[in-house]
Design goal:
Blueprint (H helix, E strand, L loop, with lengths): L16 H16 L9 E6 L5 H12 L3 E4 L13 H11 L2 E5 L3 H10 L4 E3 L7 H15 L6 E5 L4 H13 L2 E5 L8 H11 L5 E4 L2 H5 L4 E4 L11 H8 L6 H4 L7 E4 L11 H4 L6 H20 L3
Parallel strand pairs: 1-2, 1-3, 3-4, 5-6, 5-8, 6-7, 8-9
Protein name: Ornithine carbamoyltransferase
Enzyme class: transferase
EC number: 2.1.3.3
């Protein structure tokens, strides 16, 4: 993966279709332990949002590559006291080999990437979650042996995960349907970007009809109805999203071999039922594990592990 050495990953749109496929292949090789890589570098984690899977999976991945991790909690750094992003970025550039940032505004991430010479990875912003979707694609490929031609239906809020799913599916030749209530559609610019990548070879469909979206789909996907930073809206969203729950009746409309994914944490009884997330179609725990393998492949590629 020499082409990725030293590069940022701010969005899945930063990758080509070939690069995504090569990352997934590398992640599979690393997971199987047929391949072991060494990369004694230092990863910084600058997380302004709470995290379980992203924090732990990045940390374990870097340790398994022989590197080290510094957790840069904003509350105990000068970031919390108003130090300008560009100043923090230029200082961290002198200490670290790579930086993963989990924050609210995509613009803040882009400022970091502009002022830091080291690679910067989007570990989640309000606009996108590229590392999550790399793990999602890896999980789907494990289950079906291929990605091209499959249909993924996302049901719920048109949030950062929905945005990245559109890009990821378009890059690997999957059809993607996003079913949201009116007014909760994904980002319009990202939708158009995904359609441009798909280039009429696959479908990128937005709909307000979850039942139509799910029919015949191979993958059903959902996320919480109110993301981090939207907690004050959670109560008002509940009645709006009630018909966008992945439950047994909705699952029955999908392909009989369909799998169910959720990026977690899950609000059982809201966007997904207990019976579905714990049922035979669920691949949620494999999906969570694959965060580590996909991110290990990403770190190894960007840092030039040997």
């Amino acid at each position: 993966m020499a082409a990725l050495i030293g590069r940022d990953l701010l969005s899945l749109a930063d990758l080509s279709a070939t690069e995504v496929q090569e990352l997934l292949l590398l992640a599979t090789e690393l997971k199987s332990q047929r391949l072991k890589l060494h990369c004694p570098k230092v990863l910084g984690l600058l997380f302004s949002k709470a995290s379980t899977r992203t924090r732990v999976s990045f940390t374990v991945a870097m340790y398994q590559l022989g590197g080290q991790v510094i957790d840069l909690n904003p509350n105990v750094t000068q970031v919390s006291r108003g130090e300008p992003i560009e100043d923090t970025a230029r200082v961290l550039d002198r200490y670290l080999d790579i930086l993963a940032i989990r924050t609210f505004a995509q613009q803040d991430l882009e400022i970091f990437a502009h002022y830091a010479k080291i690679p910067v990875i989007n570990a989640l912003t309000d606009l996108g979650h590229p590392c999550q979707v790399l793990a999602d694609l890896m999980t789907i490929q494990e289950c079906f042996g291929t990605l091209a031609g499959l249909t993924l239906t996302y049901v719920g809020d048109g949030n950062n995960v929905a945005n990245s799913l559109m890009l990821g599916c378009a890059l690997v030749g999957m059809n993607v349907r996003i079913a949201t209530p009116i007014g909760y559609e994904p980002n319009a610019a990202i939708t158009e970007k995904a359609r441009a990548i798909a280039d009429n070879k696959t479908e990128v469909i937005l709909t307000n009809d979850p039942e139509a979206a799910v029919k015949g789909a191979s993958v059903l996907y959902t996320d919480v109805w109110a993301s981090m930073g939207q907690e004050a809206e959670a109560g008002a969203r509940l009645p709006i999203f009630q018909s966008y729950q992945i439950n047994e009746p909705l699952l029955s409309l999908a392909d009989r071999h369909a799998i169910v994914l959720h990026c977690l944490p899950a609000h059982r009884g809201e966007e997904i039922t207990e019976s579905v997330i714990e049922g035979s179609h669920s691949r949620v725990w494999d999906q969570a594990e694959n965060r580590m393998h996909a991110q290990k492949a990403l770190l190894a590629s960007i840092l030039g592990a040997e």
